[in-house]
């Protein structure tokens, strides 16, 4: 049995990097791989079926941008190698006339959205300022979803590249002001999905004058520089200074034939009245080749749109419709679930709020209970201290009562002693007065006795004189008289009386002086006792119970005055003066 010969597969491969606006793909291709193989590989990788809009753009070895030809090998198209890899950009090469009707797949819409957005932000496609803000709001909706004030905080959109720099430079507005205006429209897009937001973005963008236009510099027969615009509807001619408004246009249904010869480009129309072709010149032959490639592709799509859809397109549209319906059902379901979840979250938030409130109330109640317990303990402690203080006060009250009783008893005793001493003082004063009276009486009696004694002595002297006279007359007779005679007896008796009178006076004077000394000593002793008693009771004196008389008495004691010294002082002066002083009172 013969084994068939099998050619060994070449292991030689080269790396390829393909960039889209949101990802980067890496492949390893064989050297014989064609552009179609790479393109289909990319489309299968990203799930793209509407492949007729897209192409692979690259930079050739001369630095010119070119589109990869599908029927040639990749390595045969002078692809510039960057770090050993072939670099390609996956771009929309042709544009639809109506994005809402023609773009079926969501991935197709997303790729167009990213490319148009980048073209607007890089100012390759002119966009008015107000349209730029509206498109920015849709771009934010597509990226972040529904507006949420809690998530979309101030300053979040400032770092995003949402507006062309040309628009920002045209107005004296801060980034915060632009952000507020974008947020105003952003909040109106609530409930819009990502594909819907991107489709709305494309609907607005397709109305821009430069949407889907590929511009090429050309000259006419007069060598006037103009712009040639290749679009999905036809060819547009623009002035050099104005890329927005074409000066003339040729739709694809009017064009019969397109060709070029070196730098000369010829466009023949189907107008029988004017069979003269449109001729213009490009700068390079390469540009004419690119123009022709774009014209052929756009013309084919233009004619294709006006024919019934192929089975593939019908199938894609049906699948897209079913997918949209399914997504709509899922979206409605998600919306309901979101609403239910939001309601549940609101209820949960309300319950959590209520729980937090209850916890706060419980915490407050526990805190109040703790404070109450602390207050109760404090009150109990205060009560215990109060009871102890009450007991101490009770003991002190008892002690005070006992002290008061003792003081009352002492005061009573002191009062009794005071009364006793006052009584004794009064008795002493009475005794002193009586003794003084007796002394005065005795002094009067002594004076009387002295006077009588003087009179008696005078009488005695007179009697002696008379006796001497008599004796001198009767000296003779007296010698004869005996001692027992009667005339001698009276004289004896008088002499005896005189001696007795002198002894009585001396004795009386001694007795009076003795009684006076005893009275003075006794009076001084009484005064000392009164002074001691006064100093003792002075400590027990209650000032508020003192009367004015007590104050007067204290003042007299301080000055050392007595009743007698006061009377003596008052008595001094003439009677007239004292009467006048009295009348002046």
Automatic annotation (TrEMBL):
Looking at the record's lineage, which domain of life comes first? Answer: Eukaryota
Q: Provide this UniProt record's keywords sorted from A to Z.
A: Actin-binding, Cell junction, Cell membrane, Cell projection, Coiled coil, Cytoplasm, Cytoskeleton, Membrane
Domain annotation FERM: ranges: 14-306
SMART domains per the UniProt record, alphabetical: B41, FERM_C
Q: Biological process GO terms, please?
A: animal organ morphogenesis; neuron differentiation; regulation of developmental process
Q: GO MF terms on file?
A: actin binding
Question: What lineage does UniProt assign to this protein's organism?
Answer: Eukaryota, Metazoa, Ecdysozoa, Arthropoda, Hexapoda
Pfam families under this entry? ERM_C (PF00769), ERM_helical (PF20492), FERM_C (PF09380), FERM_M (PF00373), FERM_N (PF09379)
- This chain belongs to the protein called Moesin/ezrin/radixin homolog 1
This protein's GO cellular component annotations are: adherens junction; apical plasma membrane; cytoskeleton; microvillus; rhabdomere
**Subcellular compartments:** Cell junction, Adherens junction; Cell membrane; Cell projection, Microvillus; Cell projection, Rhabdomere
């Amino acid at each position: 049995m013969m084994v068939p010969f099998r050619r060994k597969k070449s292991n030689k491969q080269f790396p390829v990097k393909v960039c889209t606006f949101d990802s980067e793909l890496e492949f390893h291709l064989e050297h014989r791989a064609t552009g179609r193989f790479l393109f289909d590989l990319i489309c299968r990788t990203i799930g793209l079926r509407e492949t007729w809009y897209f192409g692979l753009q690259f930079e050739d070895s001369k630095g010119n941008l070119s589109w990869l030809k599908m029927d040639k090998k990749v390595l045969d198209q002078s692809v510039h190698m960057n770090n050993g890899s072939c670099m390609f950009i996956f771009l929309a090469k042709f544009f639809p006339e109506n994005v809402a009707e023609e773009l079926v797949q969501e991935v197709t819409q997303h790729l167009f959205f990213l490319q148009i957005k980048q073209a607007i932000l890089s100012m390759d496609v002119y966009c008015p300022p107000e349209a730029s803000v509206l498109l920015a709001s849709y771009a934010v909706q597509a990226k972040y979803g529904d507006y949420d004030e809690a998530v979309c905080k101030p300053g979040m959109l400032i770092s995003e590249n949402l507006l062309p720099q040309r628009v920002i430079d045209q107005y004296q507005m801060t980034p915060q002001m632009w952000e507020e205006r974008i947020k105003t429209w952003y909040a109106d897009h609530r409930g819009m999905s990502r594909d819907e937001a991107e489709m709305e973005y494309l609907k607005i963008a397709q109305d821009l004058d430069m949407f889907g236009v590929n511009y090429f510099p050309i000259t006419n027969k007069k060598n006037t520089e103009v712009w040639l615009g290749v679009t999905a509807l036809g060819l547009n001619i623009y002035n050099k200074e104005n890329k927005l408004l074409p000066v003339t246009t040729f739709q694809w249904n009017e064009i019969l034939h397109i060709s070029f010869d070196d730098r000369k480009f010829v466009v023949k129309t189907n107008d029988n009245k004017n069979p003269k072709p449109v001729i213009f010149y490009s700068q390079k032959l390469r540009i004419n080749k690119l123009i022709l490639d774009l014209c052929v592709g756009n013309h084919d799509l233009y004619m294709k749109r006006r024919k019934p859809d192929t089975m593939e397109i019908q199938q894609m549209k049906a699948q897209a419709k079913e997918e949209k319906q399914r997504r709509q059902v899922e979206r409605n379901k998600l919306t309901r679930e979101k609403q239910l979840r939001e309601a549940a979250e609101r209820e949960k938030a309300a319950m959590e709020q209520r729980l937090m409130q209850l916890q706060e109330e419980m915490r407050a109640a526990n805190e109040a209970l703790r404070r109450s317990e602390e207050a109760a303990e404090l009150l109990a402690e205060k009560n215990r201290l109060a009871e102890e203080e009450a007991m101490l006060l009770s003991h002190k009250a008892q002690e005070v009562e006992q002290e008061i009783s003792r003081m009352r008893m002492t005061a009573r005793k002191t009062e009794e002693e005071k009364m006793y001493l006052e009584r004794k003082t009064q008795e002493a004063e009475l005794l002193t007065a009586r003794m003084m009276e007796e002394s005065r009486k005795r002094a009067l009696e002594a004076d009387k006795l002295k006077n009588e004694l003087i009179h008696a002595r005078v009488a005695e002297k007179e009697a002696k004189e008379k006796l001497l006279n008599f004796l001198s007359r009767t000296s003779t007779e007296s010698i004869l008289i005996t001692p027992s005679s009667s005339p001698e007896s009276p004289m004896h008796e008088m002499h005896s009386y005189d001696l007795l009178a002198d002894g009585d006076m001396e004795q009386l004077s001694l007795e009076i002086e003795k009684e006076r000394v005893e009275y003075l000593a006794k009076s001084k002793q009484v005064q000392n006792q009164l002074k001691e008693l006064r100093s003792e009771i002075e400590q027990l004196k209650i000032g508020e119970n003192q009367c004015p008389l007590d104050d007067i008495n204290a003042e007299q004691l301080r000055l050392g005055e007595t009743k007698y010294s006061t009377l003596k002082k008052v008595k001094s002066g003439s009677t007239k003066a004292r009467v006048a002083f009295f009348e002046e009172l």
